[in-house]
């Protein structure tokens, strides 16, 4: 689909005003859930490593799939509609969402394979699960532990179709994720070099606001076997989060940032105003220099329609999260500058048969790639062993 230039219509401006109101209510919502002022931390944490030199040029060894693991490009045809229980509008057009299937060969050959569909957050992309640094590639690490993953760039990001920035919203992204879950179960998608496998068990993983998408899917549609949520809570929003959001909101109110190249679609904005905000808001003080160097090259823009609809989506989420009835695992970073005081959040999943949590003591917001991520890989694989085994 070829992008065209257009002014921001009145309907998106009304949604922006509603989003501003929702944003103003978020701190009240967080307080109402009993959020405190510090992130959870396990007893007797290990001594922190020396802070990384953020100016280090070392990009590290590229990530390579483990032996016996396939890494294949995939495509899903989806409709940009919102049938969730949270109100926001989308253009209703058909688009292509692209990503990768990363899996041990024996999982794909099994009679009843399982997979995790992994959804990134607002200010990242598929790369948050596939960082090109050895030992910090989530899907490679989970494959080495016996589990299959599908990662996607959300609509408006990376390799997926890039419509105008106000063409979609948070609820539509949840609907799209639901459509991808259904296609994974049915084997109704395109995979590089062969026939697409169908999966008997599908869990949904989400990082940051990708976890909001995952929760919206579970609450509005069901059809998933569990939720694995990283770097996320619908409470504990910090001043750093509000500063970033309100800066980006004002830019979106004017139609988004200037075009990066002729013909670029309108309505896109950086959530983090500067590269320094992006790295310091994403990574803790002990991040590997190779990770820092790689992440610095991945600072990207975000579709305004999705970003500004998220505050209202969070309010809907707080109302519905108690209805989610599948196992849930949450992963927090103790140095996450975007979410603090999240201790009460696991207790909101009152209908879930099991709610567990892990805190990475040296990690910031990008827990999938940050210091101590090995604990995340181990606990996520153990959780998959229990709730999404391949048989």
TrEMBL record:
Keyword terms, alphabetized: Hydrolase, Signal
Region of interest (Disordered), residue spans: 33-68
InterPro entries: AB_hydrolase_1 (IPR000073), AB_hydrolase_fold (IPR029058), AB_hydrolase_sf (IPR050266), TAT_signal (IPR006311)
Species annotation: Nocardiopsis flavescens
Signal peptide positions (record): 1-38
Keyword Repeat found: no
Lineage start: Bacteria, Bacillati, Actinomycetota, Actinomycetes, Streptosporangiales
Protein name: Lysophospholipase, alpha-beta hydrolase superfamily
Pfam families documented for this protein: Abhydrolase_6
Transmembrane segments: none
Regions of compositional bias (Low complexity) in chain numbering: 50-62
Residue ranges of domain AB hydrolase-1 in the record: 117-374
Listed GO MF terms: hydrolase activity
GO cellular component: membrane
């Amino acid at each position: 689909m070829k992008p065209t230039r257009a002014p921001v219509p009145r309907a998106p401006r009304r949604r922006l005003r509603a989003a501003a109101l929702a944003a103003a209510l978020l701190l009240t919502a967080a307080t109402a859930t009993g959020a405190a002022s510090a992130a959870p931390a396990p007893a007797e944490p290990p001594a922190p490593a020396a802070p990384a030199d953020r100016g280090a040029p070392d990009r590290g060894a590229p990530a390579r799939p483990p032996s016996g693991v396939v890494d294949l490009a995939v495509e899903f045809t989806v409709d940009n509609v919102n049938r969730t229980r949270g109100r926001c509008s989308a253009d209703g057009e058909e688009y292509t969402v692209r990503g990768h299937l990363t899996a041990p060969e024996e999982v794909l050959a099994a009679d009843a394979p399982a997979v995790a569909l992994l959804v990134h957050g607002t200010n990242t992309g598929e790369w948050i699960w596939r960082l090109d640094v050895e030992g910090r590639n989530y899907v490679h690490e989970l494959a080495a532990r016996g589990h299959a993953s599908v990662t996607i760039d959300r609509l408006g990001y990376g390799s997926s179709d890039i419509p105008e920035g106000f063409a979609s919203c948070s609820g539509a992204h949840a609907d799209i994720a639901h459509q991808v879950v259904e296609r994974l179960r049915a084997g109704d998608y395109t995979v590089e070099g062969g026939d697409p496998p169908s999966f008997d068990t599908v869990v949904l993983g989400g990082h940051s606001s990708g976890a909001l998408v995952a929760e919206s899917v579970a609450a509005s549609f069901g059809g998933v076997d569990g939720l694995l949520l990283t770097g996320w809570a619908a409470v504990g929003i910090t001043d750093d989060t509000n500063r970033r959001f309100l800066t980006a909101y004002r830019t979106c109110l004017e139609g988004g940032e200037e075009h990066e190249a002729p013909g670029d679609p309108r309505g896109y904005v950086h959530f983090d105003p500067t590269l320094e905000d992006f790295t310091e808001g994403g990574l803790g003080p002990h991040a590997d220099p190779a990770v820092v160097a790689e992440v610095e090259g991945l600072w990207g823009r975000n579709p305004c329609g999705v970003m500004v609809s998220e505050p209202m989506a969070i309010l809907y989420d707080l109302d519905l999260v108690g209805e989610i009835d599948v196992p849930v695992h949450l992963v927090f970073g103790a140095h996450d500058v975007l979410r603090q005081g999240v201790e009460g959040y696991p207790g909101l999943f009152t209908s879930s048969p099991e709610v567990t949590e892990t805190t990475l003591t040296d990690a910031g917001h990008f827990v999938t790639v940050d210091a101590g991520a090995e604990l995340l890989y181990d606990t996520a694989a153990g959780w998959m062993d229990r709730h999404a085994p391949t048989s």
